[in-house]
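Record 1 of the preview.
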Amino acid sequence: VQLQACGGGSVQAGGSLKLSCATSRRTSSNNGMGWFRQGPEKEREFVAGLDWRGQNTNYAESVKGRFTISRDNARGTVYLQMTNLTPDDTAIYYCAVARRAWMGTAAREVQYWGQGTLVTVSS
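->
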């Protein structure tokens, strides 16, 4: 199973980026999907998740109101629109496919991980 994430890069504080992660429809169509991140010298943490239909979403408090997660099941792709970025958002972002129809906040709920894409926000 391959999850191909892209869209990372370097931006200044206040800027925006949109991440995307493609996988096969067979892999993800009935599963929740989401994003986690791991900053420098930090543990991996939940960022955002949504159910298999993309109708119910969940966000970490630190990104609420700034990040938006969505999915296109026809393409087997999950997106993360990030706005008003701050240096604290600097991290490697990992897309994830859940073990079930809903993406929870714990890493143990992830069935498949993407390879990660680096986001760097400068002040």
